[in-house]
Amino acid sequence: MSRTRTLSPHARAILAVLLDAGGRWSHGYELARLADVKSGTLYPLLIRLEAQGYLEAEWQQPAEGGRPPRHAYRLTASGVQLARATPPGQTATSAVPRREATI
After folding, report:
1. How big is the chain by its Cα radius of gyration, in Å?
2. Which one, of 31, 20, 30, 23, lies nearest residue 84 by Cα?
3. pTM of the predicted protein model
4. What is the pLDDT of residues 26-61, one digit of tens each?
5. Nearest CA-CA partner of 74 in 28, 26, 14, 7
6. Using an 8 Å Cβ cutoff, are 76 and 61 in contact?
7. Using one digit for the tens of pLDDT, what is the confidence trace for 3-21?
8. Using CA atoms, how far apart are residues 55 and 50, in angstroms rounded to an integer?
9. H or E segment at 92?
């Protein structure tokens, strides 16, 4: 039997912003601004959502020379399902399945 865990309001906000992006890649700064989430909360959450298979991430080269590469994120198919199932205003009683680690 798999455990369930409630998504935080910040996670729901980030998922909603990524869902609104419609499959486009989004950068962390843009996500932080649109979801109103501080970077200290945002990046650990993005890492966790990626590890759980709800996001994919890639390094993108800058359009302008002299700038560092940036990490970009977008929802996977399971991430789209999760974002649709847990909108930002939903009550905290909803739970999402937690993926079990395989060894």
Report:
1. 14
2. 20
3. 0.80
4. 999 999 999 999 999 999 999 999 999 999 999 999
5. 26
6. no
7. 557 899 999 999 999 999 9
8. 4
9. none
